[in-house]
Amino acid sequence: METKAITEILNNNDIKPSYARIQIYKYLEMYKSHPTVDEIYLHLIDEIPTLSKTTVYNTLNLFSERELVLVLNLDNLEKRYELVEQNHIHFICESCKKIYDIPYEDNNLLPKGFENFQIEEKHIFLKGQCPKCSKLN
Amino acid sequence: METKAITEILNNNDIKPSYARIQIYKYLEMYKSHPTVDEIYLHLIDEIPTLSKTTVYNTLNLFSERELVLVLNLDNLEKRYELVEQNHIHFICESCKKIYDIPYEDNNLLPKGFENFQIEEKHIFLKGQCPKCSKLN
DNA sequence: ATCAAAAGTGTTATGATTACAAATCTAATT
DNA sequence: AATTAGATTTGTAATCATAACACTTTTGAT
Known about the structure:
Number of strands of chain A: 5
CATH topology of the largest domain in chain A: Arc Repressor Mutant, subunit A
CATH architecture of the largest domain in chain A: Orthogonal Bundle
Shape of chain A: globular
Radius of gyration of chain A: 17 Å
Largest sheet of chain A: 3 strands, mixed
Structural class of chain A: alpha+beta
Strand content of chain A: 15-25%
Order of helices and strands of chain A: HHHHEEEEEH
CATH superfamily of the largest domain in chain A: Winged helix-like DNA-binding domain superfamily/Winged helix DNA-binding domain
Oligomer: homodimer
């Protein structure tokens, strides 16, 4: 995605499109790799030598407040971040640790008697063996 | 649940039924409140004045390895623990922070083309407004 | 009663995240 | 072009959950 398009998205969400913010958004958009703060920081530090890890935290928290970004607590070691896009669920392979995005068909998760729970966020993640790793075992 | 029954469960899972372990199991069984390590520790310290928080960590990790206990990473502040029982999903109210257990009808989560992902654990949690809190707003 | 293995304890270390204050940048106004 | 207030970024220090580790206590078999 071009800088111009990202600038527009940020502006639309009342976020001043600073260079750091654009680059962080661009990273999320390019790699779609559910990165940690550290991964983003290490990737951008070459391009932005003055970058501070605090800025990465601040930016991701801001993006999350504005609902541009979803925070994933998959392993409870480090938070992971992804752009809010179409609904999907996450599958973590316990062998190779790879995180897969799996399309999600929007089933109705609430059974009878629970209809007046108002859902604002759905998090579904599965742990197991991915096809590659289950072949090996 | 009686001490005797818990002793048996632990024995069946090759866990020596020490007093601390039994009490921690009993707490999980009685309250079903998705407690944190701290909550368990603070509740048991009256009964077991020598209890160490490390013991609570060790015990819960052991229970988790033996698949007696499920670790929940709901908010990524503190881990929460619950006994492995029948399938259910979690709903966290963003207003009152209460965690609800909601029965879960075992839909098939994997769409076509993803059948060879082997699921070992399912985690589904929803965030939103519980019935009480959505009435108030 | 002895003794090795298991369990528990308490202190210290680790590592992700936040708080905070200072520095820098931005953009509007003169 | 200079000024300046406000936003952004930075770097350090603090926080807090969890793990590592070494020591002590308990257990259970001989």
